[in-house]
Write the C-alpha coordinates for this entry.
Amino acid sequence: MKLKEIADTLKGELHGPGDLEITGPGKIDEAAPGQITFLANPKYQKYIASTRASAIVIDKPIEGLALPYILVANAYVAFMQILRLFTPPQHDYFAGISQQAEVDPTAQIDPSAKIAPQAYIGPNVKIGKNTVIYPGVVVLKNVQIGDDCVLYPHVSVREDCVIGNRVILHNGVVIGSDGFGFAPFNGAYHKIPQIGNVIIEDDVEIGANSTIDRATTGSTVIHRGCKIDNLVQIAHNVKVGDHTAIAAQTGIAGSVEIGKNVVIAGQVGIVGHIKIHDKVIVAAKSGISKDVPEGEIVFGSPALPMGKQKRIEASMRRLPELIKRVRDLEEELNALKEALKRKE
Protein backbone atom coordinates (compact mmCIF):
# COMPACT_ATOMS: atom_id res chain seq x y z
CA MET A 1 0.00 0.00 0.00
CA LYS A 2 1.02 3.61 -0.49
CA LEU A 3 1.78 5.61 2.65
CA LYS A 4 -0.99 8.08 1.77
CA GLU A 5 -3.52 5.26 1.57
CA ILE A 6 -2.55 4.18 5.07
CA ALA A 7 -2.72 7.76 6.38
CA ASP A 8 -6.18 8.20 4.86
CA THR A 9 -7.38 4.97 6.46
CA LEU A 10 -6.04 6.07 9.85
CA LYS A 11 -7.38 9.61 9.36
CA GLY A 12 -3.90 10.73 10.36
CA GLU A 13 -1.67 13.66 9.40
CA LEU A 14 0.89 12.57 6.81
CA HIS A 15 4.45 13.89 6.95
CA GLY A 16 6.41 12.38 4.09
CA PRO A 17 6.02 11.15 0.51
CA GLY A 18 2.49 9.89 -0.09
CA ASP A 19 3.63 7.51 -2.84
CA LEU A 20 6.06 5.64 -0.55
CA GLU A 21 5.41 1.92 -0.99
CA ILE A 22 4.72 0.07 2.29
CA THR A 23 4.96 -3.72 2.21
CA GLY A 24 3.72 -4.43 5.73
CA PRO A 25 4.01 -3.68 9.46
CA GLY A 26 6.98 -4.41 11.76
CA LYS A 27 8.27 -3.86 15.29
CA ILE A 28 10.37 -0.73 15.68
CA ASP A 29 13.50 -2.71 16.64
CA GLU A 30 13.01 -5.45 14.01
CA ALA A 31 11.36 -3.73 11.01
CA ALA A 32 12.93 -4.03 7.57
CA PRO A 33 13.03 -1.43 4.79
CA GLY A 34 9.58 -1.09 3.26
CA GLN A 35 7.78 -1.72 6.55
CA ILE A 36 5.87 0.72 8.73
CA THR A 37 6.26 0.70 12.52
CA PHE A 38 4.83 2.64 15.46
CA LEU A 39 5.83 4.28 18.73
CA ALA A 40 3.34 4.17 21.61
CA ASN A 41 5.60 3.41 24.57
CA PRO A 42 8.31 6.02 25.34
CA LYS A 43 10.82 3.34 26.35
CA TYR A 44 11.08 2.32 22.69
CA GLN A 45 11.98 5.83 21.53
CA LYS A 46 15.66 4.86 21.76
CA TYR A 47 15.13 2.77 18.59
CA ILE A 48 14.05 5.77 16.48
CA ALA A 49 17.62 6.48 15.34
CA SER A 50 18.40 2.86 14.43
CA THR A 51 15.13 1.51 13.04
CA ARG A 52 15.26 0.32 9.45
CA ALA A 53 11.53 0.92 8.92
CA SER A 54 10.53 3.19 6.05
CA ALA A 55 7.81 5.02 8.03
CA ILE A 56 6.42 5.29 11.54
CA VAL A 57 3.11 6.05 13.25
CA ILE A 58 3.29 8.36 16.28
CA ASP A 59 0.81 10.19 18.50
CA LYS A 60 3.18 12.87 19.85
CA PRO A 61 5.47 15.08 17.75
CA ILE A 62 9.17 14.10 17.93
CA GLU A 63 11.64 16.91 17.39
CA GLY A 64 14.07 16.29 14.54
CA LEU A 65 12.33 13.13 13.31
CA ALA A 66 13.67 12.47 9.79
CA LEU A 67 11.63 9.31 9.16
CA PRO A 68 8.38 9.75 7.21
CA TYR A 69 5.57 9.58 9.75
CA ILE A 70 1.81 9.63 10.29
CA LEU A 71 0.59 11.62 13.30
CA VAL A 72 -2.53 10.12 14.90
CA ALA A 73 -4.51 10.44 18.14
CA ASN A 74 -3.51 6.98 19.41
CA ALA A 75 -0.54 5.18 17.86
CA TYR A 76 -1.34 1.82 19.46
CA VAL A 77 -4.88 1.75 18.09
CA ALA A 78 -3.67 3.00 14.71
CA PHE A 79 -1.12 0.21 14.44
CA MET A 80 -3.88 -2.29 15.22
CA GLN A 81 -5.71 -0.91 12.16
CA ILE A 82 -2.55 -1.29 10.07
CA LEU A 83 -2.20 -4.93 11.14
CA ARG A 84 -5.75 -5.50 9.96
CA LEU A 85 -5.02 -3.83 6.64
CA PHE A 86 -2.17 -6.23 5.93
CA THR A 87 -3.79 -9.38 7.37
CA PRO A 88 -4.55 -11.96 4.68
CA PRO A 89 -8.03 -13.50 4.44
CA GLN A 90 -8.77 -15.79 7.37
CA HIS A 91 -10.64 -19.08 7.60
CA ASP A 92 -10.40 -19.87 3.88
CA TYR A 93 -9.10 -23.41 4.43
CA PHE A 94 -12.54 -24.92 3.73
CA ALA A 95 -16.01 -23.87 2.61
CA GLY A 96 -19.55 -24.94 3.42
CA ILE A 97 -20.37 -27.99 5.49
CA SER A 98 -17.86 -30.78 5.08
CA GLN A 99 -19.20 -34.25 4.33
CA GLN A 100 -16.71 -35.47 6.92
CA ALA A 101 -18.41 -33.45 9.66
CA GLU A 102 -21.04 -35.12 11.83
CA VAL A 103 -24.09 -32.83 11.75
CA ASP A 104 -27.40 -33.83 13.33
CA PRO A 105 -30.31 -33.43 10.89
CA THR A 106 -32.17 -31.22 13.38
CA ALA A 107 -29.35 -28.64 13.49
CA GLN A 108 -30.10 -25.28 11.86
CA ILE A 109 -26.99 -23.93 10.15
CA ASP A 110 -26.92 -20.74 8.08
CA PRO A 111 -25.78 -21.46 4.49
CA SER A 112 -22.88 -19.01 4.86
CA ALA A 113 -21.39 -20.87 7.86
CA LYS A 114 -18.37 -23.18 7.49
CA ILE A 115 -18.18 -26.55 9.24
CA ALA A 116 -14.81 -28.32 8.92
CA PRO A 117 -14.14 -32.06 8.72
CA GLN A 118 -14.27 -33.99 12.01
CA ALA A 119 -16.51 -31.43 13.72
CA TYR A 120 -19.63 -32.63 15.58
CA ILE A 121 -22.83 -30.57 15.63
CA GLY A 122 -25.54 -32.00 17.90
CA PRO A 123 -29.35 -32.00 17.91
CA ASN A 124 -31.25 -28.70 17.73
CA VAL A 125 -28.07 -26.62 17.47
CA LYS A 126 -28.42 -23.21 15.80
CA ILE A 127 -25.42 -21.62 14.04
CA GLY A 128 -25.58 -18.12 12.55
CA LYS A 129 -24.20 -16.35 9.50
CA ASN A 130 -20.50 -16.60 8.56
CA THR A 131 -19.60 -18.59 11.66
CA VAL A 132 -16.60 -20.90 11.27
CA ILE A 133 -16.31 -24.26 13.05
CA TYR A 134 -12.84 -25.83 12.85
CA PRO A 135 -11.91 -29.54 12.97
CA GLY A 136 -12.42 -31.36 16.24
CA VAL A 137 -15.00 -28.92 17.60
CA VAL A 138 -17.86 -30.52 19.57
CA VAL A 139 -21.16 -28.65 19.92
CA LEU A 140 -23.75 -30.54 21.94
CA LYS A 141 -27.55 -30.36 21.89
CA ASN A 142 -29.57 -27.14 22.01
CA VAL A 143 -26.54 -24.85 21.74
CA GLN A 144 -27.07 -21.48 20.03
CA ILE A 145 -24.13 -19.79 18.26
CA GLY A 146 -24.56 -16.35 16.67
CA ASP A 147 -23.12 -14.69 13.57
CA ASP A 148 -19.43 -14.23 12.64
CA CYS A 149 -18.09 -16.49 15.38
CA VAL A 150 -14.91 -18.58 15.15
CA LEU A 151 -14.48 -21.82 17.09
CA TYR A 152 -10.92 -23.10 16.67
CA PRO A 153 -9.89 -26.78 16.85
CA HIS A 154 -10.94 -28.86 19.85
CA VAL A 155 -13.36 -26.34 21.34
CA SER A 156 -16.19 -27.98 23.27
CA VAL A 157 -19.53 -26.28 23.83
CA ARG A 158 -21.77 -28.27 26.11
CA GLU A 159 -25.55 -28.61 25.93
CA ASP A 160 -27.90 -25.60 26.24
CA CYS A 161 -25.16 -22.94 26.17
CA VAL A 162 -25.66 -19.67 24.27
CA ILE A 163 -22.93 -17.84 22.35
CA GLY A 164 -23.52 -14.39 20.88
CA ASN A 165 -22.15 -12.71 17.76
CA ARG A 166 -18.49 -12.20 16.83
CA VAL A 167 -17.25 -14.51 19.59
CA ILE A 168 -13.81 -16.12 19.21
CA LEU A 169 -13.03 -19.32 21.10
CA HIS A 170 -9.41 -20.47 20.78
CA ASN A 171 -8.10 -24.02 20.79
CA GLY A 172 -9.23 -26.24 23.63
CA VAL A 173 -11.76 -23.87 25.19
CA VAL A 174 -14.48 -25.67 27.16
CA ILE A 175 -17.80 -23.90 27.60
CA GLY A 176 -20.40 -25.39 29.92
CA SER A 177 -18.54 -28.17 31.73
CA ASP A 178 -20.09 -29.07 35.09
CA GLY A 179 -19.53 -26.70 37.97
CA PHE A 180 -17.54 -27.98 40.95
CA GLY A 181 -20.59 -28.80 43.06
CA PHE A 182 -20.47 -31.62 45.63
CA ALA A 183 -22.32 -32.08 48.92
CA PRO A 184 -20.28 -33.74 51.70
CA PHE A 185 -22.33 -36.33 53.59
CA ASN A 186 -21.35 -39.39 55.63
CA GLY A 187 -17.69 -39.03 54.69
CA ALA A 188 -18.26 -38.87 50.93
CA TYR A 189 -18.89 -36.21 48.30
CA HIS A 190 -22.21 -36.42 46.45
CA LYS A 191 -22.50 -34.73 43.05
CA ILE A 192 -24.94 -31.83 42.82
CA PRO A 193 -26.58 -31.80 39.35
CA GLN A 194 -25.45 -28.77 37.35
CA ILE A 195 -28.58 -27.92 35.36
CA GLY A 196 -27.81 -24.32 34.34
CA ASN A 197 -25.89 -23.09 31.30
CA VAL A 198 -23.32 -20.54 30.12
CA ILE A 199 -24.23 -17.37 28.22
CA ILE A 200 -21.46 -15.61 26.30
CA GLU A 201 -22.49 -12.26 24.88
CA ASP A 202 -21.28 -10.45 21.75
CA ASP A 203 -17.63 -9.61 20.96
CA VAL A 204 -16.07 -11.87 23.59
CA GLU A 205 -12.71 -13.58 22.97
CA ILE A 206 -11.55 -16.52 25.08
CA GLY A 207 -7.97 -17.84 24.99
CA ALA A 208 -6.72 -21.39 24.57
CA ASN A 209 -7.59 -24.04 27.17
CA SER A 210 -9.73 -21.73 29.28
CA THR A 211 -12.79 -23.23 30.93
CA ILE A 212 -16.12 -21.70 31.87
CA ASP A 213 -18.39 -23.87 34.02
CA ARG A 214 -22.15 -24.07 33.63
CA ALA A 215 -24.29 -22.75 36.47
CA THR A 216 -25.78 -25.03 39.08
CA THR A 217 -29.08 -23.30 38.25
CA GLY A 218 -29.50 -20.21 36.11
CA SER A 219 -26.54 -19.02 34.02
CA THR A 220 -22.84 -18.29 34.20
CA VAL A 221 -22.61 -15.07 32.16
CA ILE A 222 -19.71 -13.48 30.30
CA HIS A 223 -21.00 -10.09 29.21
CA ARG A 224 -20.22 -8.29 25.97
CA GLY A 225 -16.71 -7.29 25.00
CA CYS A 226 -14.83 -9.36 27.61
CA LYS A 227 -11.34 -10.58 26.75
CA ILE A 228 -10.16 -13.71 28.56
CA ASP A 229 -6.61 -15.02 28.22
CA ASN A 230 -5.33 -18.61 28.04
CA LEU A 231 -5.69 -21.03 30.97
CA VAL A 232 -8.35 -19.14 32.89
CA GLN A 233 -10.87 -21.01 35.09
CA ILE A 234 -14.29 -19.41 35.65
CA ALA A 235 -16.55 -21.36 37.99
CA HIS A 236 -20.32 -21.86 38.11
CA ASN A 237 -22.69 -18.89 38.39
CA VAL A 238 -19.96 -16.27 37.92
CA LYS A 239 -21.00 -13.00 36.26
CA VAL A 240 -18.31 -11.02 34.39
CA GLY A 241 -19.23 -7.45 33.40
CA ASP A 242 -18.87 -5.70 30.05
CA HIS A 243 -15.37 -5.13 28.63
CA THR A 244 -13.49 -6.80 31.47
CA ALA A 245 -10.05 -8.29 30.73
CA ILE A 246 -8.72 -11.36 32.57
CA ALA A 247 -5.11 -12.53 32.11
CA ALA A 248 -3.73 -16.06 32.08
CA GLN A 249 -3.85 -18.58 34.93
CA THR A 250 -6.49 -16.68 36.88
CA GLY A 251 -8.99 -18.77 38.85
CA ILE A 252 -12.41 -17.41 39.80
CA ALA A 253 -14.51 -19.38 42.28
CA GLY A 254 -18.28 -19.80 42.16
CA SER A 255 -20.89 -17.03 42.28
CA VAL A 256 -18.39 -14.16 42.02
CA GLU A 257 -19.73 -10.95 40.47
CA ILE A 258 -17.19 -8.92 38.48
CA GLY A 259 -18.12 -5.44 37.28
CA LYS A 260 -17.54 -3.57 34.03
CA ASN A 261 -14.11 -2.51 32.72
CA VAL A 262 -12.23 -4.51 35.35
CA VAL A 263 -8.62 -5.58 34.67
CA ILE A 264 -7.41 -8.78 36.33
CA ALA A 265 -3.73 -9.62 35.81
CA GLY A 266 -2.16 -13.08 35.64
CA GLN A 267 -2.31 -15.78 38.33
CA VAL A 268 -4.96 -14.03 40.40
CA GLY A 269 -7.13 -16.15 42.71
CA ILE A 270 -10.62 -15.00 43.69
CA VAL A 271 -12.70 -16.67 46.42
CA GLY A 272 -16.39 -17.36 45.87
CA HIS A 273 -19.45 -15.25 46.59
CA ILE A 274 -17.78 -11.81 46.53
CA LYS A 275 -18.22 -8.75 44.34
CA ILE A 276 -15.53 -6.88 42.44
CA HIS A 277 -16.98 -3.54 41.40
CA ASP A 278 -16.51 -1.57 38.18
CA LYS A 279 -13.09 -0.30 37.00
CA VAL A 280 -11.08 -2.27 39.55
CA ILE A 281 -7.48 -3.25 38.68
CA VAL A 282 -6.06 -6.40 40.30
CA ALA A 283 -2.29 -6.82 40.09
CA ALA A 284 -0.65 -10.16 39.23
CA LYS A 285 -0.56 -13.04 41.74
CA SER A 286 -3.06 -11.32 44.04
CA GLY A 287 -5.51 -13.21 46.22
CA ILE A 288 -8.95 -11.59 46.50
CA SER A 289 -10.83 -12.64 49.63
CA LYS A 290 -13.45 -9.90 50.02
CA ASP A 291 -15.41 -7.32 48.03
CA VAL A 292 -13.37 -4.68 46.18
CA PRO A 293 -14.84 -1.15 45.88
CA GLU A 294 -15.23 0.61 42.52
CA GLY A 295 -12.05 1.98 40.97
CA GLU A 296 -9.71 0.41 43.56
CA ILE A 297 -6.24 -0.85 42.56
CA VAL A 298 -5.33 -3.86 44.68
CA PHE A 299 -2.27 -6.04 45.08
CA GLY A 300 -1.00 -8.87 47.27
CA SER A 301 -2.39 -11.91 49.03
CA PRO A 302 -4.64 -11.09 50.71
CA ALA A 303 -5.08 -8.18 48.33
CA LEU A 304 -4.92 -4.68 49.77
CA PRO A 305 -5.06 -1.21 48.19
CA MET A 306 -1.90 -0.69 46.14
CA GLY A 307 -0.49 2.18 48.24
CA LYS A 308 -0.88 0.32 51.52
CA GLN A 309 0.54 -2.90 50.08
CA LYS A 310 3.60 -1.06 48.72
CA ARG A 311 4.30 0.36 52.17
CA ILE A 312 4.02 -3.14 53.65
CA GLU A 313 6.37 -4.52 51.00
CA ALA A 314 8.87 -1.74 51.69
CA SER A 315 8.72 -2.51 55.41
CA MET A 316 9.23 -6.22 54.77
CA ARG A 317 12.42 -5.51 52.84
CA ARG A 318 13.75 -3.66 55.89
CA LEU A 319 12.75 -6.45 58.28
CA PRO A 320 16.27 -7.97 58.78
CA GLU A 321 17.64 -4.52 59.62
CA LEU A 322 14.73 -3.80 61.98
CA ILE A 323 15.19 -7.16 63.76
CA LYS A 324 18.88 -6.39 64.28
CA ARG A 325 18.02 -2.97 65.70
CA VAL A 326 15.49 -4.51 68.11
CA ARG A 327 18.09 -7.06 69.29
CA ASP A 328 20.66 -4.29 69.79
CA LEU A 329 18.13 -2.28 71.79
CA GLU A 330 17.26 -5.35 73.87
CA GLU A 331 20.94 -5.87 74.66
CA GLU A 332 21.31 -2.20 75.65
CA LEU A 333 18.19 -2.41 77.81
CA ASN A 334 19.43 -5.57 79.52
CA ALA A 335 22.80 -3.90 80.15
CA LEU A 336 21.04 -0.89 81.73
CA LYS A 337 18.95 -3.18 83.92
CA GLU A 338 22.08 -4.98 85.10
CA ALA A 339 23.78 -1.64 85.85
CA LEU A 340 20.78 -0.48 87.91
CA LYS A 341 20.78 -3.74 89.87
CA ARG A 342 24.44 -3.28 90.73
CA LYS A 343 23.79 0.25 92.00
CA GLU A 344 21.01 -1.01 94.23
